[in-house]
Design a protein that fits this description.
This protein folds into three domains: 126 residues, Rossmann fold (3-Layer(aba) Sandwich), CATH 3.40.50; 201 residues, 3-Layer(aba) Sandwich (Rossmann fold), CATH 3.40.50; 101 residues, GMP Synthetase, Chain A, domain 3, CATH 3.30.300.30. The protein is 32% helix and 25% strand.
Length: 511
């Protein structure tokens, strides 16, 4: 166990690499020393305004240096960050803020209309600060830095004191707040750094939203605690992304599968803008093998697929950089993380057999905020139950077949939507695909495929089903195919199947 807090590790790194570039935001560079000083001043400003240890502060901000300074400043003040999903409606944000009992809100000016709605129903905030480029509003933000950055040391209990409460997307009911401690994040950033084999001088391109666990830990906190540079990009636009990579000589790109799929449409004469990238990392959702194969051929850069739930800080495993990549797997457990496959009774499954992936290590969350029963249900002894169905091979590589709740049972046979999706992605006309289960009186459940076609291609249900019959068992062939202009995605670009489930219920007249 590491007894250092995230603050200790960041400050030590910032002093060691004081003159190195830490963040490049819209062409402006910030050294580690500048970032440390800004976060010290921000923390002092928060304390002067009444923020105390263990308070919670909502951070509602785009990918930016301001997000970074606010995040580290909140933590240095002894408070916990509650990152807000930028795609959520005001009512959803209000739930998160009320549930976590925030004492303050730091927000980006573009979200003012949502904030007005939220604050009309939330009266208990000590502090509301707008990050703005306009002179009229910027005083609120700038005034927090009007101090010398000195404040009394705040004792940190690394095992119990929180860095952040990250709300998981509620597949059933309301979202739950995963409590991540200093120990969790110090452990996981160290594991990521070792597994990725990064070094000082690497430049991580961060277009994944920083409110999300993958982006926050891998894209922001790991560089901050290990002397690397990162480049926050506020919006995923392929041309702007490629230009930014070229200008900053980015060496590492972090993405989710849908981003790699979009980048496949890059014109061949622009792919050289990606040439400084040495490796890509994919997480957040299963990477279709066909998308990975086509991307690597087009850009000449390997993608290392990994995985991990928010509750695990989040990284649990990744294909080893410099080692053997097993395409279609999520790789080996990262250093200091244990994984195994359990059956429904908590018994470890033999090699190759399918069961639930369980995780143990200092990276595993303290629990869900104010939900002791849900916390208890998510553990078997000291193993966190991820809800993912998968298996382990003879070399220790893990594969994820599907979410436990997404498995479809057709006539008593287990059907894994991911296997059907892999087949669909191999069809030239298919841009995106998602498969869910639908209740059926005759078969128990049936698989339903939601398809987005490539521009300029045509296909109908018969074409899709015919292709599937060539490559799947008869019970796995989608009984129904729904064509859409776009699949619903969350803020991290991950396809949200619960929205498709809801749409299917509406179509069938289920209230």
């Amino acid at each position: 166990m590491n007894n250092k807090s995230l603050i200790d590790v960041f400050n030590r790194t910032a002093i060691k690499y004081a003159d190195n570039i830490s963040v490049i935001d819209n062409g402006t560079s910030y050294t580690f020393y500048e970032l440390k000083l800004a976060s010290d001043k921000f923390a002092a400003g928060l304390i002067q305004r009444g923020i105390k240890k263990s308070d919670r502060i909502a951070l509602y901000c785009i990918n930016s240096v301001e997000f970074t300074i606010a995040y580290m400043g909140i933590v240095k003040a002894g408070a916990a960050v509650v990152p807000i999903n930028l795609l959520q409606k005001a009512s959803e944000i209000l739930y998160v803020m009320k549930n976590s009992g925030v004492s303050g809100l730091i927000y980006y000016s573009a979200f003012q209309s949502n904030v007005d709605v939220i604050l009309s129903d939330l009266h208990a905030t000590k502090l509301t600060v707008c990050i703005s480029t306009s002179a009229a509003k910027s005083n609120e933000w700038e005034s927090l830095f009007e101090n010398n950055g000195m404040f009394p040391p705040i004792p940190i209990d690394v095992e119990n004191d929180l860095v952040a409460i990250l709300y998981t997307s509620g597949t059933t009911g309301k979202p739950k707040g995963a409590m991540l401690t200093h120990q969790n994040l110090v452990s996981n950033t160290a594991s990521v750094y070792q597994a990725m084999k990064w070094c000082v001088g690497d430049v991580i391109i961060l277009v994944l939203p920083m409110f999300h666990a993958f982006a926050a830990t891998v894209g922001m906190l790991t560089p901050l605690t290990h002397g690397c540079c990162f480049v926050p990009i506020a919006k995923f636009e392929p041309d702007n992304l490629l230009n930014t990579i070229e200008k900053t000589n980015g060496t590492v790109f972090l993405g989710v599968p849908s981003m790699y799929n979009v980048l496949l449409n890059t014109k061949d004469d622009k792919t050289d803008r990606f040439s400084s990238i040495n490796l890509c990392v994919s997480g957040g959702a299963s990477m279709p093998v066909d998308v990975m194969d086509r991307f690597e051929k087009k850009f000449g850069v390997p993608i290392y697929e990994g995985d991990g739930p928010t509750e695990c800080s989040p990284v649990t495993c990744v294909n080893p950089v410099g080692g053997i990549r097993k395409i279609g797997t999520v790789g080996l457990p990262v250093p200091n993380v244990e994984m195994k496959i359990l059956d429904d009774h908590g018994v470890e499954m033999p090699i190759g057999e399918v069961g639930e992936i369980a995780v143990r290590g200092d990276n595993v969350m303290k629990g869900y905020w104010q939900l002791p029963e849900a916390t208890e249900e998510s553990f078997f002894k000291d193993w966190f139950l991820t809800g993912d169905l998968g298996n382990e091979d003879e070399d220790g590589y893990f594969s994820i077949l599907d979410r436990k709740k997404d498995m479809v049972i057709v006539n008593g046979m287990n059907v894994y939507p991911r296997i059907i999706e892999e087949v669909l992605y191999r069809l030239e006309s298919v841009l995106e695909a998602a498969v869910i289960g639908q209740l059926d009186k005759l078969h128990g459940e049936i698989p339903v495929a939601y398809i987005v076609l490539q521009e300029g291609f045509k296909a109908d249900s018969a074409d899709i089903r015919s292709w599937c019959r060539q490559h799947l068992g008869s019970y796995e062939v989608p009984r129904k195919v729904v064509f859409m202009d776009a699949l619903p995605k969350n803020g991290a670009g991950k396809i949200v199947k619960r929205v498709l489930n809801k749409q299917g219920e509406i179509e069938r007249g289920v209230q």
